[in-house]
Structures are given as structure tokens and as C-alpha cells.
Design goal:
This protein has 86 residues and is mostly beta strands. The protein is built from no helices and 6 strands. 0% of the residues lie in helices and 63% in strands. A hairpin with a 3-residue loop joins β2 and β3.
Length: 86
């Protein structure tokens, strides 16, 4: 059995978005494993179809893991709905 609270906050502007996530996990009923994690992400729109996304995260226990992500995202309009707006 485990309990796992998770909280996230998101902020969005016209050309950007940002999110912060925190999570904790605790196993009970005999197990002593605990896990904590935090992650921050941001996305910045470069043009109508192109954006760059940045992310960083850290997890503590049972192993400490750090991550850093950088990616380019391309969005194409749906062929099913050619009138779709951005």
C-alpha cells in the first residue's frame, strides 16, 4: 500500500508556458521506501509551428537521479480539421 501526493502549478502566457511539479511517495504496511521528486518545465514559442522546451528534474531515494531536457517541438495542423486555429 502506498500514499502519493502530487502537486503541480502551471502558468501560461501568449508565447510561453511553465510548470512546476512536486511529488512524494511513501510505501506503508512493512515497506520503508520513500521517494521525493521535483520537476520544472518551460516551453517558448518561436513561431506559429515551432517551440523549444526545457525541463529539469530531480528524484531522491532510492537513487538520486537528475535530468535535464532540451527539445524542439514542431506542430502541424490537423488534416481532419483544416480550419483549426492556433
Amino acid at each position: 500500500m502506498a500514499g502519493a501526493p502530487h502537486a503541480a502549478a502551471t502558468r501560461q502566457g501568449a508565447q510561453w508556458s511553465a510548470q512546476l511539479e512536486l511529488q512524494a511517495e511513501k510505501f506503508i504496511a512493512g515497506a520503508t521506501l520513500r521517494r521525493l521528486g521535483a520537476r520544472a518545465t518551460g516551453e517558448f514559442r518561436l513561431s506559429r509551428n515551432l517551440s523549444v522546451a526545457l525541463g529539469a528534474g530531480r528524484t531522491w531515494a532510492p537513487r538520486h537521479v537528475s535530468e535535464l531536457n532540451v527539445s524542439l517541438k514542431w506542430r502541424q495542423r490537423s488534416l481532419a480539421n483544416p480550419l483549426e486555429r492556433d
